[in-house]
Each structure stands twice: as C-alpha cells, then as structure tokens.
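Field: sequence (string)
Field: structure_tokens (string)

Example rows 1 and 2, in order.
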Amino acid sequence: MADRSWFIIAKAENAISVSDLYYSTVGKSHTVAYTCPILSDEGQVLGYFSTRFNWDYIYDIIDSARIGKNGDIFIINNSGYVIACRNRKGILTENLKHLKAAQLAIQGETYGYLFEKDSMGTKIYGYAHTRGYNAYKGKKWSALVSETL
C-alpha cells in the first residue's frame, strides 16, 4: 500500500491523516481512510495504522433527512464533487460548483440559502459548510439541500 495517496500523505506529515472520499479498489466501495503513525516510546515511527470508514453509513443520515417531495440533498467535497446524495448516483463524477449555493459553501460561508432558476423552474438551495470537530479541522465538505418551488 506504500504507493497509495493516503499512505504517502500520512508518512509525509508524520501525523494523523484523513483522506477525502475515494473509491477503494481493494474494498470495492467508496470510503475515507484514517491513517496514523505508530510510535515507539522514543517517538520513532514503527509503522502505520490505517482503517476505513464504511461510507454506506452516510446514507442512513441522508435517508433520514426531512425534506420535501420535490427536494434533494447532496454532500459535496471542497472541489464541488458530489460525495453523497439520495439517489447514490454521480458520486465523485458529478460536480455542483456551477451552483451559486455550492460556490458560497466551498468558499467557507457557514450557512445560508438562495434561489436559483434552471430548466425545471425555481429552486431554493440551503447550504452549510462543515467546520470539523474539536482539533479536527474537517475536510471542508458542505451540504446542499434543494427544493423545487
């Protein structure tokens, strides 16, 4: 696994590393890698511990979200790529950065909403930018919720 980006980054930073969402050819699923060095009592690196997050659990959260019949919910990474959505399509291939709500969220605006028109009519988009937890800065992901009016 020494050629995998999650390992290269953890080794280079010599610290806990959390990857962005990626498709694991080993696990045959989308996942996030959590990797950290294992240190001796003297502080020397003995090896690395790495585990994977079962990405299917994100859908428990998405499926329980209360949105309207004409609504949708997306989780996007800091480049605008869909990393989770209700229909489970377009993961890591569909990019929403063309939406103003996605742009604002990616830029770090904490939360808000706005109206946008498209071929289907007018939609309201709510957005929220993740902030991490405690010392963990997060991956700068965002949630977008849309509702067609």
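Row 2 begins here:
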Amino acid sequence: MAAAGNRAAIALTIAGSDSSGGAGIQADIKTFTVLGVYGASVITALTAQNTQGVQGVHSVPPEFIAKQIASVASDLAIGAVKTGMLGDRATVETVAAALRQHDLRPVVVDPVMVATSGDALLAPDAVDAVRRELLPLADIATPNLPEAARLLDEPVAMTESEMEAQGRRLVALGARAVLIKGGHGTGPEAVDFFVAEGVASRLAKPRLATRNIHGTGCTLSAAIAGLLARGEPLEAAVRLAKEFVWRAIAAGRDLEIGHGAGPVDHLHDIRGNNG
C-alpha cells in the first residue's frame, strides 16, 4: 500500500503561449511556481512574440482546447482557474462551456484584449461572448481601464469614482467581484479598485518608472489564482497579488531582456531581490 502524500495546491491557466516568456502561459507558470503552487496549463493559442510586439498568432482549434481542459479536469484536483488570452468568440464559448461542465472554480477572468505592445489579442466579435458567457462565471474579473470600458461599451474611466462605478456595473453583469487595474492611468500612484457586493476597496502603490511591464496583467491574475488555490480569501488574495506584482515590477526595472518592453521579474522572491 502506497504511503499517502501531501496534497499540492494546484492552479490551472487557460491562456495563450508567449514565445518570449514574459506573459501568457509562461508568466502564469512562473508565478504559480514562485507562490508554491503546482501549475497546469491549457494552451489556447501560440504567439510569435517578443518584447517589441506580436508577429503572429496561431489559434488552437476549440475542440482541442476542450480536450485539454477535460484531460486536466479528469485527473487533477484543480484549486483555482485563470483565463487569459482566448482570441476569438468560439474559444471564449468553448472555455465557458468547459468551466461549467467540469465545475471548475474559483475562476479568475483576465479579459485579455491587447498586448503590452498594442497588438490585438481578442477579436472584436468575442467581446460580447466574454461579457455574456465568461463574466457570469467569474469569481473575479481583472480588466484594465481600456478593457473595462470595452466590456461596458463606455469611455475609459478618468477618475477614481468612474473606476469604482464601472466596477459596480461589471459586477451587475454577473462577475462576483471585479478588480479594475489602474496601471494605464496617471499620477504618482497606481490605483486599482476592488469591487464586490457591498464592497469597494481602493488599492494603491507608488507608480514605478520603467518600460519593463510586459506580462503584468497575466502575472497579477495568475497570482490571484495561485493564492486562491492555496486557500486565501478573495480580497486577501487580491491584496497579496498586487503586492507580488509591484515587487516584480520594482525588481525588474533594470532587467535587460530584449529590445522593447521587457518582462517583470517573476523570480524576485526566489532571488530575495525586492527592488
């Protein structure tokens, strides 16, 4: 009789692959690992990508995405799931159906629409599918300012009160909670808003001057999922994840990787380098 082992915390990322390693599946797995969580992955697309932009996208057929999810869900005790780049309407609908079929939760939805370089990563007709199919499954959605505006078909929020109001409208669309990320904003602080039923929390950190911000959104949503898989309550997971990403940005300011917008330092905690 085999000895009983320790049950690992497991998080699943459903996202695209970044060939340069700074965002997408690669960033997610690095983040899970540093947080002490076993990472599993379902790849939705392959990108030819580097720090300067996206040169090509090869989408994985929806039926094979569904097969990957079924394979992982039938064998691993998934403690949390995050979605990232989904690419098109068929993929969004396939992933949403699989999340329901296999009862995978909690779910962190990062509605990835545009790469750091400005390249589009979500087809226009897929936005409605995210709104209709995926948001109602989200324990938390993590849009940045342009993504929140696109999901609501509204102008980009310019003030903190507008950010909070958009967060509430996204909750009304079905998400249990929303973290609107203010990294695209201005001012000395990077301000995010965590909004849930009866809750609105302002989360702020000093804004860091650096061009090495490739993969920040992926890293944040992965950190939330990893912390949820470890058993952290939702708002605590959000706060800890924001701190993790801020340290990764701080530690990565002087990294020289590529010739464009370099990645954050996912391994900062392992190195003991907190900026």
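free_text_note (row 2): The beta strands are 10-18, 38-50, 53-59, 80-83, 107-109, 140-141, 177-180, 189-196, 199-206.
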